[in-house]
Amino acid sequence: MDAFNNLIYGFSIALDPINIFYVFAGVFAGTVIGMLPGLGPISALALMIPLTFGMEPSSGLILMAGVYYGAIFGGSTSSILLNAPGVAGTVATSFDGYPLAKQGQAGKALAIAAYASFIGGTISIIFLMLVAPLLGRVAVSFGPAEYFSLMVLGLTAVVSLSDKSLVKGLIAAVVGVMISIMGIDLQTGTERFTFGTVHLLDGIDFLVVALGIFALAEVFYMLLRGGGGKEQPRNAIGSLRLTKQEVRQIAPPIGRSSILGFFTGVLPGAGATIGSFLGYSMEKRLAKDGDTFGKGNIKGVAAPESANNAACTGSFVPLLTLGVPGSGSTAVLLGALLVMGVSPGPAMLVDRPDVFWGVVASMYLGNIFLLVLNLPLIPLIAKILDLPRPLLLALILIFCMVGVYGMSFSVFDLLLLLGFGLLGLGMRLFGFPAAPLILALILGSIMEESMRRALQISGGDWSIFIDKPISLALLVVAALSLTLPLLRKFRAR
Amino acid sequence: MTRLNSNQIIALLLALFSVGYLAMAWQIPQFPLPRPIDSDLFPKVLGFTLLGLAVLLFFEAPAAGEPQPDGDSAESSETLLLRPWSRVVVTAIALAAYALLLVPVGFVLASTALCFGLGCYYGYRRHAVNLATSLGVVLTLYLTLTRVMGVYLPTGLLPF
To answer: Would the pTM of this model clear 0.90, i.e. be above it?
Structure first.
């Protein structure tokens, strides 16, 4: 009953007209920004910080939370229509969303993304409300060894997705980790692989690699396949309606991925990206038609979309109850809260219940706004596919360049983007999957940091990773996720 | 002598890369204070892992459909500049030129030129529509980023 009373209290704050406006403004701004390849939730949240100066902390967080899950929601649109995920959490959505768009079912893919996001978000809010304090206690028990093992599991789960060749998937992952550790080593201040240039001291930004490997490589690939001058077939958007059979197909994946996504989001360092990849991976394994994943399976859109929105909500658990940001975006949120004079942590539920419960209640409103806002707009948004292909290709290139330049103001990064575009093209041509590289890029530096901290604690004793039961369990699951597909292949032969 | 397949060529390139990477990893300076593991350990592990994977890749048969070095290159009746690989090369050169000219020429001019030029090159023949779309999108982006979001973009030759 406590949770129910608290929720009523939260609604009394969220239903304040000014807060309703903030929820609406937040999700709208987030959706629009998230749709633009290159402008993800972190940029959107960072841009909002100045607006929250002088606001009530609960109102400020309500606005920023709306921007956050709005951007994740909006990111699916560019993933599906352009294969250009500006948000890491929607990379997995493009695996099946883009093939569906190419088959003339963009409307259906966008509608599934909207429903899945709504349901994933709503289910996860219930979890957030009911079990936040308990989950906070579990998450706090994760030390560096467990984090390292979790990152290993996240990577192997994605590598095992690459059907064609496990070796090529692993190579892509190793290269991703190599890219992620470039720059100044934060623990010692040592420069690594900077080639003496100041441009690489901070490493290479995720956006440069993601836009290069996905969007630019896609344009190059289309040019190579002779798609540059051809018009796409008419009626490319297709119907938004789902048949009863399709609803039955996507309902179980949405339910499972929502729960998985939420729990992934709760673990600091994991978040929407790992959540969406794990959701996708799980459904691919469970599905009888798993071999059609990556070719336009609607479950391949539903699973990562529900998981990433659920993980997005889940990441509020460590942020609000422990003061530990679960992702880059929640780190920006943490900064904003500190600016507003609120210190998230175990005492927050007692000291500032208005902030915690106000945000929880506002999320219900935000999810409804997102659905109401996005479903009618889908045909309008999907009109982007009606653009003549030559113009669309040129515009995608401009969006990529602007996205990167607007973030770093660096000509060097633009040239890097081009380099990664060509690398992405080579990877596509020779059957190297891009997803492990991208995930490794995100996880690599955290993985190394966790590994070194764990070894620092153990005095260099590597057995720390198998002495801790959670870490051991995660490593065993990681090993199984790599070996089971191999065993299955051998058995099939 | 047997010809190498695409996987074997890539494996050799990756092996060369990993050797170079390992050589650089060995040059990472040590932290003055003794630590259980230093900045060079993780890169060394990565270098050796990549080398091992390159060996495995060498012995893996390429999947059907992957381009092979001795494969037939489809002869095209199109002129050299319009062949698929030429399109990729020209686009890459255009993007590199855009990156280098963005600051001196300015965002609006450089982006409009890139968008319009590539649109024409890819085969869009309605030049007025192309120019209007390119200019419209670029100006919208420019005004949104500079006036609404406070992001600086180079003005270059134009006064605004």
So the answer is: no
Q: Element (H or E) spanning A71, and its range?
A: helix A57-82
Mention every residue, 6+ apart, whose C-beta is less than 8 A from residue A311. Answer: A89, A124, A261, A262, A264, A265, A270, A271, A272, A274, A275, A276
Instruction: Show residues of chain A in contact with B149, CB under 8 Å.
Output: 47
According to DSSP, the residues that pair with A32 across neighbouring strands are none
Smallest CA–CA separation between A164 and chain B, in Å?
A: 7
Cα–Cα distance measured from residue A292 to residue A88, given in angstroms and rounded to the nearest whole number: 23
Which H or E run contains A184?
strand A183-184
Place of tokens 């809260």: A337
What is the rounded CA–CA span in Å between residue A38 and residue A176?
A: 19
CA A359 to chain centre: 21
Give the gap in angstroms from C-alpha B1 to the nearest C-alpha of chain A: 24
From chain A, the residues in CB contact with B7 under 8 A are 430
d(CA A416, CA A400): 12
Q: Say how many CA atoms lie within 13 Å of A387 toward its Cβ.
A: 22
A195: three-class secondary structure by DSSP: coil
**Per-residue pLDDT reduced to its tens digit, B96-133:** 999 999 999 999 999 999 999 999 998 888 899 999 99
Domain residue limits, chain B: 6-58, 80-148
Mean pLDDT of each 10-residue bin along chain A, 493 residues long: 77 88 87 69 71 78 84 81 74 88 85 90 86 64 81 75 77 92 86 87 83 84 70 57 87 92 75 82 85 87 91 81 67 75 72 81 85 76 70 85 83 93 92 82 82 88 90 88 75 69
* DSSP conformation class of A163: -
Sequence-distant (6+) residues with CB within 8 A of B141 are A398, A399, A402, B111
Q: Could you give the ipTM of this predicted complex?
A: 0.91
Tell me whether residue B128 is exposed, middle or buried, using C-beta atoms within 10 angstroms of its C-beta: 0 to 12, 13 to 18, 19 or more. Answer: exposed
Q: Tally the C-alpha atoms within 13 A of residue A386's C-alpha that lie toward its C-beta.
A: 9
Nearest to B92 among A174, A192, A422 (CB): A422
Give the three-class secondary structure for A434. coil
> CB–CB of A13/A361 below 8 Å?
yes
What are the chain A neighbours of B10 within 8 Å (beta carbons)? 430
Going by the DSSP 8-state scheme, the letter that residue A192 receives in this structure is: E
Amino acid at A121: G
Do A142 and A470 contact (CB within 8 A), yes or no?
A: yes
Q: In chain B, whose CA is at the least distance from the CA of A226?
A: B84
